[in-house]
Amino acid sequence: MNTSSEPCNISDWLRLEATVKASVFVVAFSFATSTTAIIMAIVLHDLKLQTEIRYILLCHHLLCISSYCGLGIVFQGMRALQANSPLLICWVVFGIQLSAGEGILFTLALMTLNTYLAICWPLRSLVLVDSVKYRILAGMWTIIILKNVSLFLIDGMRSSPVAILKSEPVCPLTLNGTVSRVIGMVFFCLPLSVIFISYSLIYQEGKRAGHFNRSNVKARKTVLIHLVQMVLHVVPTLVIIGLGKACGTFSFALNMVLFALFALAQCFNPLIYGLQNRELQSRLCHWLCCDHMVNSRAPIETDTPALRVHNSSPLRVHNSSPSGHIR
């Protein structure tokens, strides 16, 4: 679009970038929200699942993904349409989206840490985690919100009240100062360190117990899927931060490819950490099978008791299997 002899108009590139990102966010939001709704419906309909920390963390994680993508549509849409929004509104929308994005990584770190404790310390972790699970979640959100509010206040002190309330055609990105970048990288690397350390300890424990031998293809496949998922989370983010914003077709195309990979990882999070879970799969199958059985039995509900018992017996027989799965 630009040649080397033409001046660089960064605002045109930012608007085009915002248009593409808003479109990608729409797709990611639709897919992530639909799968999140299914998983949360399963959890909310089962009292046992509602009390387990892994499903509480999973629901928080999925809500963060949906919120992040939804707010991404709003923020990038404001930039693409040149909505002339006040700078304060841009900061608020971007700050909430940033908090949701950090919540994705922090809840993922807590999920991984909880898995490590459940595998390596199964007896001690149950009592410990149940006693502090809500405090940990409250502490996590308190730290994230206080950090972002403090950084926005620091950036806001550099601008006058008139400039903060002034309308901007393209919402500018904030938190680009040195202090903000350093703190942001700390909050990015801290949960990543917890995730990778927990995964390495889980792998060592599984290898010691013989779960990662050559015959156990499923265990090795699960580790590989989670590793690829983490790479799609981390690598695009680091490269985008390192490249920054620049004019030119190559820079734009590279940023969009990296962003698409990151958005793809968000879309598949509900499937990898949610519907791949055997217990959720069994609940979903049970839910669907029960609806199918009720619908198929509805026309003959007034028949004899013996016939009704005969029609409902296959579901009870399948539920009594030792694995607890519906076959």
From TrEMBL:
Keywords: Membrane, Transmembrane, Transmembrane helix. Its main location: membrane. The chain crosses the membrane at residues 22-43, 55-74, 86-113, 134-154, 182-202, 223-244, 250-273. Pfam families: 7tm_1 (PF00001). Residues 11-273 form the G-protein coupled receptors family 1 profile domain. It is found in: Membrane. InterPro entries: GPCR1_Superfamily_Member (IPR052921), GPCR_Rhodpsn (IPR000276), GPCR_Rhodpsn_7TM (IPR017452). Signal peptide: none annotated. This is Olfactory receptor 10J1-like.
